[in-house]
């Protein structure tokens, strides 16, 4: 529509009494939304914007299509590609595994949060650990190095870990409540998570100090940094500066705890 028409449409949309329109749009603006959320949005929006007129209804539908993730690149397809990459690796087909990892790299290079879902990140960590600890023949090791599987995984982990770190404190679960399982912290008190993250950190540190390339070491440092999250606390406006100082101090202590052994090992 022309500029005057667009202005009129925007006024109609913002004046709409049904605020559920905006809740639906905000849901599909998050790149990690589920396919069911996308279907629900396309099903509900036409009904809720019908009273705004055909022009406004058409504009909102177009907006929804542009915001929603498609079937080609979505959190679900990225999770599946990671699983397939690991299955191919376990089947001794590194070439196919690298192909699926390229899909994951492409998706996370556009939307890093696609690799930061709870299941998606867990799959990445599991695959990375398997690549690093599996008993392989010299031919398999050579092929894995040829296709750069560890380098690709370290790059994806660094990218996804940073995205996870940025949103974990505020991202709601599908029920609208904060999901503790989305948090990714090295000092987690949950035994299973603590063990998983300890194993990951151990492998990342090995890449930095023993058998990793400079690129792998750089990615490992980014990933370790993303795993350090000070606890988020709600503060009153008057206590913001105190809370910020406490958060900064907490971050400094955690960074010192994680990186001091690494620096000592490199000296």
Percent strand: under 5%
Secondary-structure element order, as H and E? HHHHHHHHHHHH
Distance between the termini: 64 Å
User: What count of helical segments does DSSP give?
Assistant: 12
Cα-atom Rg, whole angstroms? 22 Å
Count of β-strands = 0
Q: Output mean pLDDT.
A: 80
Task: Report on the architecture of this protein.
Helix 1 crosses helix 4 (about 55-65), helix 7 (about 120-135) packs antiparallel against helix 9 (about 150-165) and helix 9 (about 150-165) packs parallel to helix 11. Residues about 170-190 and about 230-235 have low confidence and may be disordered. The longest helix is centred in the last third of the chain and has 27 residues, at about 240-265. It contains twelve helices and no strands. It is mainly α and about 270 residues long. It has helices at about 5-15, 20-30, 35-50, 55-65, 75-90, 95-110, 120-135, 140-145, 150-165, 190-210, 215-225, 240-265.
Task: Break the fold down into its secondary structure elements and pairings.
Layout: H1 3-14, H2 20-29, H3 35-49, H4 54-67, H5 75-90, H6 94-110, H7 118-133, H8 138-146, H9 149-167, H10 191-211, H11 214-226, H12 240-266
Provide a short characterization of the protein structure:
By secondary structure, this protein is an all-alpha fold.
Q: What characteristics describe this protein?
A:
267 residues; mainly alpha
């Amino acid at each position: 529509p022309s500029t005057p028409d667009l202005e009129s449409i925007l006024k109609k949309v913002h004046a709409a009494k049904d605020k559920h329109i905006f809740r639906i749009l905000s849901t599909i603006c998050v790149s990690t939304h589920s396919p069911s959320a996308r279907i629900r949005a396309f099903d509900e929006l036409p009904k809720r914007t019908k009273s705004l007129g055909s022009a406004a209804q058409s504009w909102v539908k177009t907006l929804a299509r542009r915001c929603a993730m498609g079937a080609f690149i979505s959190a679900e397809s990225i999770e599946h590609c990671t699983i397939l990459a690991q299955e191919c690796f376990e089947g001794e087909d590194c070439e196919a595994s690298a192909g699926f990892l390229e899909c994951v790299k492409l998706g996370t290079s556009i939307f890093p949060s696609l690799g930061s879902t709870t299941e998606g990140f867990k799959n990445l960590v599991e695959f990375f650990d398997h690549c690093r600890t599996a008993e392989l023949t010299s031919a398999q090791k050579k092929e894995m190095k040829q296709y750069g599987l560890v380098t690709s995984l370290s790059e994806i982990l660094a990218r996804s870990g940073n995205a996870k770190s940025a949103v974990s404190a505020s991202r709601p679960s599908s029920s609208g409540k904060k999901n503790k399982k989305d948090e990714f912290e090295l000092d987690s008190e949950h035994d299973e998570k603590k063990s998983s993250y300890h194993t990951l950190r151990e492998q990342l540190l090995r890449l930095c100090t023993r058998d990793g390339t400079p690129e792998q070491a750089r990615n490992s440092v980014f990933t370790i940094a993303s795993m350090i999250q000070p606890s988020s606390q709600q503060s009153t406006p008057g206590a913001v500066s105190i809370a910020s100082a406490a958060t900064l101090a907490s971050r400094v202590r955690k960074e010192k705890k994680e990186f001091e052994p690494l620096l000592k090992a490199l000296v």
